Amino acid sequence: MNEDPTYEEIMLIDEELIKLVLKRVEVLRHLDYSRVKQVLNSRRIKVAEVLSQKYSLPHDDLVHIISYVDGATLKVIKPIFVGFLGPRGSFAEEASLKVFNSQGASLVTYNSIRDVFRSVETEEVDYGVVPLENSLEGSVGETLDMLAQSSVKICGETEVRISLNLIAKPGTKIEDVMVVLSHPMALAQCRNFIYTKLKNIVVETRSSTSEAVKEAVERRGVAAIGSELAAKIYGGEVLVRGIEDHKENYTRFIVIGYRPLDVGVGVKTSIILTLKDLPGSLYRALEPFAVRGINLTKIESRPIKGRPWEYMFFIDFSGSVEDLKVREALDQLTDRVTSIKILGSYRKIP
Hints:
Layout (H helix, E strand, L loop, with lengths): L4 H24 L4 H23 L3 H19 L3 E5 L5 H10 L5 E5 L2 H9 L5 E8 L3 E2 L1 H9 L3 E9 L3 E4 L10 E4 L1 H6 L1 H7 L4 E4 L3 H8 L5 E5 L1 H7 L2 E4 L9 E8 L7 E10 L6 H11 L4 E8 L7 E8 L5 H11 L4 E10 L2
Parallel strand pairs: 1-2, 1-3, 5-15, 7-8, 7-9
Antiparallel strand pairs: 3-4, 3-11, 5-11, 6-9, 6-10, 12-14, 12-15, 13-14
């Protein structure tokens, strides 16, 4: 069946409109974002008046059309802002750079996982990057709790190998180190090195590995355990690389936001569900996935805040909510649970 010639003609006109919008973007792209906003806002009403008189079109309709095009222009020109769990030099920053560096994103630090979520919810940033789980230490409880209560979606994920280093003020020798600073988890993951390679030292905890590195490079006889990125940022010298007890140490970070990333490989979906307090309720909830051959890659229970001895379940599985068998499984699951929340279908950035 042939397409209606009128339809084809409209499609060609629409294509020309898009080309003109993109041309408009290129004319403005060299300007600072705030300057672009100023230019567009200052001219909108005047342009509508001129075009209304010239082409006998309703003034208000033209204002709406121009406003819409201006909004699209700003979205294209506006840089991406990404919030991450700081401070600078954290492994969350490494994850953020891994995902967004090629897009020229502006990175913003936040003091807590909750703050990262809130910054995305209020559109202070476009995306957030937070740790979800570590291959040795397990899941990050605060991230799970925020996913349960927040409106944001998981838009992507990546893994960062946790390589820990002994870092100090440039010129420091390992035998000069009397105090070692770091986050409690990092100290625990380097226990063998600390107690076999360092003698008679004092161990002190800090809120983050980055904070420890920043402090250590300003003090004599003090070293920190942290990332190589932190050493570069704060001007520290790496005395010993790779001091972690287990080399296969990875942290899985998720990208949160409202728009899926169009990069990455594979597709995974995450959901949260709560169950009826009945025998076999978990079995019945998982059965729709099993009978359709959908691979569950993670399942974990988490206490529900304010409801003692009640739990929610976090589940990851292969596939997208757009896949037919996934939709069928979720439809069947809905009748077997008390609640279900789809956190998103997303890809992994390698």
